Amino acid sequence: MADRPRIRWHILVFLAPAVLVYSAVMIFPLFNTLRLALYTEVERERVFVGLENFRTLFFDPVWAEQFWNALGNNFWFFLIHMAVQNPIGIALAALLSHKRLRFAALYRSAIFIPTILSFVIVGFAWKLILSPIWGIAPSMLDAVGLKSLFAPWLGREGSALTTLALVSVWQFVGIPMMLIYAALLSIPEEILEAGEVDGITGTAAFWKIKLPLILPSIGIISILTFVGNFNAFDLIYAAQGALAGPDFATDILGTFMYRTFFGFQLQLGDPHMGSAIAGAMFAIILVGVCLYLFGIQTRMRRYQL
Amino acid sequence: MTRKTTTLGMALATTALVATGAAAQDVTLTIESWRNDDLTLWQDKIIPAFEAEHPDISIRFTPSAPAEYNAVLNSKLDAGSAGDLITCRPFDASLALYEDGHLTDLSDLDAMDNFSDVAKSAWQTDDGSATFCVPMASVIHGFIYNKEAFEELDLAVPETEAEFFAVLDAIKEDGSYIPMAMGTNDQWEAATMGYNNIGPNYWKGEDGRLALIAGEQKLTDPQWTAPYATLNRWAPYLGDGYEAQTYPDSQNLFTLGRAAIYPAGSWEIAGFNQQAFFEMGAFKPPVRNAGDTCYISDHTDIGIGMNADTEHPEAARTFLAWVASPEFAEIFGNALPGFFPLSSTPVELEDPLAQEFASWRGECESTIRSTYQILSRGTPNLENETWGASVAAIKGTKTPEELGEELQDGLASWYEPQQ
């Protein structure tokens, strides 16, 4: 009797609120959405059709074209973030952590502030800045004699997505900067001093000592960027609307899902196909995160500081 | 529930107040609508006019926000708490309500004879056997122009397409105005104020539209692709960077006097009257050759129907018959210039710009937007596809023939008569 482990009620009691709330607002809707993807509506009745919706999504020419277009755009959106946002974030953090930099706190706040702005404000403000009619971008370029470089970027198929990705980079560059900045600050002085004794200073110190030490943070930032980008919707919707023009050039999975699920103009909403797209997004993100966690994270070398 | 109780409560209160005689028959009708912009118009003009004639019926106008209307209405109808009268969106949204048994068939309403078939088509079953909403208003497409700019440059209002482009050339050459204010950023203007504005002259209005629905014409036919070729010729006359120009940008360019011509829908009239400081005129979509019959897009936009579960069907019918009368048409048309009453009796309009638009009904054949009835029911959605196609036509990224083929393939993929 005495050996039987006691049920530790307090653990259950303390866990319960969080588990219940999380299940009710996250787990249940998530699985219900996945379940909804397996049904369709025929004659106003909900009918179970198994994976039929996914077959339509991937293989029906009309749906597949939109899906692959959105997925391709999504990858390009992610690539721009990885290639521009994260390197710039790291560079800014390296500059900010430089000891002789004055007004570092001011720069840090100024660069971080866009992150806390609403997407709607960012989308609208940039649309105005880049507007060929009222925007300040054409007149600023004109002032330095480069008017010929200006184009209605948001209105052209070739440049709209890249432009929006760069706007998003502008908004969120503060996040990698802050995370890397924190990681850089946590590197002990002694290690850098030891490096100096061995003749590693300046840029070499960054590449050979600091960068390997902040690699795990860069990994985390990459995966956050991945999840954030594949869930993105707001900026595109605020700037280009649900049809993600011109000619679907800025359509990403989020806008495609929204349009399908809720309907648009004369297009009536189709919650079942919409859920199928949401399911596909979930799967893509899940696979991406797993690849990272098991493929990269576990192999990353860690240093005891 | 609460609503019903309140309505009942109010009815009782009214009865108690008026107390004697015929007052026992007093009923209150509630109207569901998305036009919250029109609340004062209903309260100050329409309702008093009706109540003066029918003292035993009182009306309450209870609009909700336009974007939420369909969802709010559906849940109210399912819960049995919706108003007695229901403002109808055109085509499929209302058709679904009728098929679900929420709207009553009104075909036997005598006053329905006051409307043309085109006017009724937005609220009929596909075979036209039942009409379930009384048409209230439509919007007409055309071009609004800056009269002062035209006088300054000594230009005449164009009648034919050749004249239209000659006018655009003249404005462009002079250089003080942007010839035409339209952008492709928001996409719908290109389709609504572009393709469906000039298109009816090509596909001969209702003839073409109905033939397309019947499957006798295809979107690859010249009358359906040629408007894209014409749209392509618009591009040089649109402002710099029109690719990124939004709908409000275009409105502002025109009302600030920087552009001379604005491809328009009549709903702009009220706003433009307030914003623009110059005199405006309007001309109808130019015909292809002098002497051709002209066609205009006179698009049915608002109707009103009766909730099948109403407790006062007789009073509701009385009100609907009144809405179908010329008297209502006159009040409505003048209070909301740009939303034109649909009844066949001509209405005396006071606003000169609205008069100009309405006068085309006498000269031209009316039709509605080609994509709205039946053809936008499936996936891909023809209306949305037409937005993209019209933009591509203006920018010249695809040829009219390619666009016609794409749209036809999309339509044929789900619409049987086109297969």
From TrEMBL, chain A:
<dbReference type="Pfam" id="PF00528">
    <property type="entry name" value="BPD_transp_1"/>
</dbReference>
<dbReference type="GO" id="GO:0055085">
    <property type="term" value="P:transmembrane transport"/>
</dbReference>
<feature type="transmembrane region" description="Helical">
    <location>
        <begin position="105"/>
        <end position="126"/>
    </location>
</feature>
<feature type="transmembrane region" description="Helical">
    <location>
        <begin position="161"/>
        <end position="184"/>
    </location>
</feature>
<comment type="similarity">
    <text>Belongs to the binding-protein-dependent transport system permease family.</text>
</comment>
<keyword id="KW-0812">Transmembrane</keyword>
<dbReference type="InterPro" id="IPR051393">
    <property type="entry name" value="ABC_transporter_permease"/>
</dbReference>
<keyword id="KW-0472">Membrane</keyword>
<dbReference type="InterPro" id="IPR000515">
    <property type="entry name" value="MetI-like"/>
</dbReference>
<feature type="transmembrane region" description="Helical">
    <location>
        <begin position="75"/>
        <end position="96"/>
    </location>
</feature>
<feature type="transmembrane region" description="Helical">
    <location>
        <begin position="12"/>
        <end position="31"/>
    </location>
</feature>
<feature type="transmembrane region" description="Helical">
    <location>
        <begin position="213"/>
        <end position="236"/>
    </location>
</feature>
<dbReference type="InterPro" id="IPR035906">
    <property type="entry name" value="MetI-like_sf"/>
</dbReference>
<feature type="transmembrane region" description="Helical">
    <location>
        <begin position="274"/>
        <end position="294"/>
    </location>
</feature>
<feature type="domain" description="ABC transmembrane type-1">
    <location>
        <begin position="71"/>
        <end position="294"/>
    </location>
</feature>
<dbReference type="GO" id="GO:0005886">
    <property type="term" value="C:plasma membrane"/>
</dbReference>
<protein>
    <submittedName>
        <fullName>ABC transporter permease</fullName>
    </submittedName>
</protein>
<keyword id="KW-1133">Transmembrane helix</keyword>
<keyword id="KW-1003">Cell membrane</keyword>
<keyword id="KW-0813">Transport</keyword>
Automatic annotation (TrEMBL), chain B:
<comment type="similarity">
    <text>Belongs to the bacterial solute-binding protein 1 family.</text>
</comment>
<dbReference type="GO" id="GO:0055085">
    <property type="term" value="P:transmembrane transport"/>
</dbReference>
<keyword id="KW-0732">Signal</keyword>
<dbReference type="InterPro" id="IPR006061">
    <property type="entry name" value="SBP_1_CS"/>
</dbReference>
<dbReference type="GO" id="GO:0042597">
    <property type="term" value="C:periplasmic space"/>
</dbReference>
<protein>
    <recommendedName>
        <fullName>Probable sugar-binding periplasmic protein</fullName>
    </recommendedName>
</protein>
<dbReference type="InterPro" id="IPR050490">
    <property type="entry name" value="Bact_solute-bd_prot1"/>
</dbReference>
<dbReference type="InterPro" id="IPR006059">
    <property type="entry name" value="SBP"/>
</dbReference>
<keyword id="KW-0813">Transport</keyword>
<feature type="region of interest" description="Disordered">
    <location>
        <begin position="397"/>
        <end position="419"/>
    </location>
</feature>
<dbReference type="Pfam" id="PF01547">
    <property type="entry name" value="SBP_bac_1"/>
</dbReference>
<comment type="function">
    <text>Part of a binding-protein-dependent transport system for a sugar.</text>
</comment>
<feature type="signal peptide">
    <location>
        <begin position="1"/>
        <end position="24"/>
    </location>
</feature>
